[in-house]
Task: inverse folding
């Protein structure tokens, strides 16, 4: 079948404003939108710019606004997308070129949350830090984040003010806050209790709808607020 790809193009160094360009490509229903973007880039217009790496929903590098919703281009099939597909860069981040956005502010927010285990104590057996299956289960969901930014770039609070740390950073803070082996919980909670932290969320659920991993983001946000309350942080 023939599929029309409508792509929002923008080169800030050459264009006064973004504009739409249309490309017709031949596709199978089981092709992914990423396959169509490759067809355009490799055979029609080599200037089209986008980011991708694994092509299998693992690396998180190809989140785009496809048919009006944040998705991974490598996971969204033509049979679900239809014969006219619109593709735009994710929102709330500066466009570097076409579908490629500046992720630096996103990484800066993530860095604030200290996304690594903190524990300088020697394990009891000198080798490994054990935890129960129930304790491991507490961060199972949030540990599946692939840092694609689909959630943060779908959040209206983040659109209006990029100083909000955003749902992706909260998800990754949650992953360590509830980890029984971590010793920096208090510091993490104080970071999340900052005026630009978790309290900025207005529970609009856009992030949940956008997440390609179906992570229960609002549940994680709620649990972080509960932990802040339990720690007596104001
Ligand atoms: Fe992507 Fe989901 Fe992680 Fe957000 S929580 S960065 S949408 S995987
Ligand atoms: Fe934003 Fe998600 Fe909260 S979209 S407002 S972080 S529920
Ligand atoms: Fe890696 Fe899509 S290219 S998640």
Result:
């Amino acid at each position: 079948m023939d599929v029309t790809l409508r792509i929002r193009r923008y080169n800030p160094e050459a264009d006064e404003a973004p504009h739409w360009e249309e490309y017709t490509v031949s596709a199978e229903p089981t092709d992914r939108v990423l396959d169509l973007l490759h067809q355009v880039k490799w055979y029609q217009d080599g200037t089209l710019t986008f980011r991708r790496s694994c092509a299998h929903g693992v690396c998180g590098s190809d989140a785009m606004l496809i048919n009006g919703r944040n998705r991974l281009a490598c996971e969204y099939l033509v049979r679900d997308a239809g014969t006219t597909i619109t593709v735009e860069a994710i929102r709330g981040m500066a466009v570097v070129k076409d579908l490629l956005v500046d992720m630096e502010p996103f990484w800066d927010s993530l860095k604030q949350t200290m996304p690594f285990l903190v524990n300088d104590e020697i394990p009891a057996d000198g080798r490994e830090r054990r935890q129960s299956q129930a304790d491991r289960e507490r961060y199972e969901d949030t540990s599946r984040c692939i840092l694609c930014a689909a959630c943060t770039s779908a959040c209206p609070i983040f659109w209006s003010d990029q100083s909000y740390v955003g749902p992706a950073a909260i998800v990754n803070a949650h992953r360590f806050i509830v980890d029984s082996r971590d010793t920096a919980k208090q510091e993490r909670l104080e970071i999340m209790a900052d005026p630009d932290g978790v309290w900025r969320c207005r529970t609009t659920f856009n992030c949940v709808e956008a997440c390609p991993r179906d992570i229960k983001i609002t549940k994680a946000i709620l649990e972080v607020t509960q932990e802040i309350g339990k720690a007596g942080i104001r």
